[in-house]
Amino acid sequence: MSTSDSKETAQRIGQLREKFVKIYGHHPEGIWRAPGRVNLIGEHTDYNLGYVLPFAIDKNALVAVRRKSQLEPDAKVLDFASTFGHGETPAITSVELDELVPGAVPGWAAYPAAVLWVLNQLEGLELTGLELLVDSDVPVGSGLSSSHALEVGTIVALNDLYNLGLAETDMARLTQRAENEFVGAPTGIMDQSASLMSHAGHALFLDCRSMESEAVPLPLIEQEAVVLVIDTKVEHSHVDGGYAARRDSCEQAAAALGVASLREVSNVAELEALEDPVVRRRAKHIVTENQRVLDTVRVLRDGDLKAVGQLLCQSHESMRDDYEISSQELDAAVEAAMAAGAIGARMTGGGFGGSAIALISVQQIAHVSQAVETAFERAGYVRPAIFTVIADEGAGKA
Ligand code: ADP
Ligand code: MG
């Protein structure tokens, strides 16, 4: 089952349409849906041109759009609004299409504006102004990629409306450029690819160098297992320094080893040539994590969830000790989930806060959730948000 058809999404679509009319005085031309994602395994490997294995989740951004006609007085103005935190009357951020330059759009509207900016540079495309309204239930700053849901929802809408014929891989690269150059977050290609290319019931095995991908079945329903998300409510931010610093270390390692990217290193022994122990540890995470993605795909094909669980735990240790992107809350979530009988658990997403995932049996949802909540309460951490997710279908017309 994909939530693209779910009752809840259908209800949100109806409400979004009404709200659009209320705010803009017109009907939208259409509504598009772009999901957030959970990364099963393969963290920080994308910008090292390695492997990732995310899946789209049943939380999504709905993006309603109407293009303006040349006859309207503000034909060249882009209007952005979001239902997020605004109750009945979302504020509108307006930007002149011709004045779109990096840094020109403050706040959240930079994400959809970034997509317009990148499309505006495509040869032979005459964009007009537009009205856009977003409604997203992807938690913000939780490492589930609410920002990419926004960008992907915008690009699939414009791809359809302007008949651009962009392939999913084109849209992934364009949104990456939008986020890197316009928003200023040096993120990789995984998040938008997951939102664009995932299939219900499957994880997306993506080679970030060739952009070849394959849908790998997740044998969760058959084995009465489920993925639990533990949102620590500690917000991470990619615009901050930690993510960029990790990226730098990887580039340094690749340069010192004389390879184009760490993807080209498959043996940890090769890393002994690296003099700086910190850079060596960072590189070790990437090299071992790439191998863990390949191993996870293999054991998933065998239906061996226990082996998947072990790889998730190894991945967490690697991020905690070698890549150093975990946090005390994320570690506590993983430890408590494992102690309560989870099959495997790890932090997911960029790190420095955000969410952890636990692979658990369906019978253990309440037990594991309770155990994590208790551990957080005892440690004096903010109460986490805990929920299960379904592997949903990638972005498209709602
Ligand atoms: P993540 O993508 O992991 O959720 P980011 O820091 O990359 O975290 O992106 C979060 C940002 O995305 C928010 O600060 C906001 O600017 C934007 N955003 C996400 N969802 C919405 C929404 N529904 N409405 C407006 N802005 C949003
Ligand atoms: Mg993001």
Question: What descriptors fit this protein?
Answer:
12 strands; Alpha-Beta Plaits; 398 residues; Ribosomal Protein S5, domain 2; binds magnesium ion; 4-stranded antiparallel β-sheet; 10 helices; 2 domains
Give a written overview of the molecule.
The protein is α+β, with helices and mostly antiparallel strands and 398 residues long. It has two domains: 3-215, Ribosomal Protein S5, domain 2 (2-Layer Sandwich); 218-389, GHMP kinase, C-terminal domain (Alpha-Beta Plaits, 2-Layer Sandwich). 39% of the residues lie in helices and 21% in strands. It contains ten helices and twelve strands. The chain has helices at residues 7-24, 110-120, 146-161, 168-183, 190-197, 241-257, 277-301, 305-322, 328-339, 365-379; strands spanning 30-41, 51-67, 77-82, 93-96, 130-136, 202-207, 213-217, 225-231, 344-348, 355-361, 385-389, 396-397. Strands 1, 2, 3, 4, 5, 6, 7 and 12 form an eight-stranded mixed beta sheet that branches. Strands 9-10-8-11 form a four-stranded antiparallel beta sheet. β9 and β10 (355-361) form a beta hairpin. The radius of gyration is 21 Å and the shape is globular. The chain binds adenosine-5'-diphosphate (ADP) and magnesium ion. Adenosine-5'-diphosphate binds at residues 82, 84, 108, 111, 134, 136, 140-147, 150, 237-238, 349.
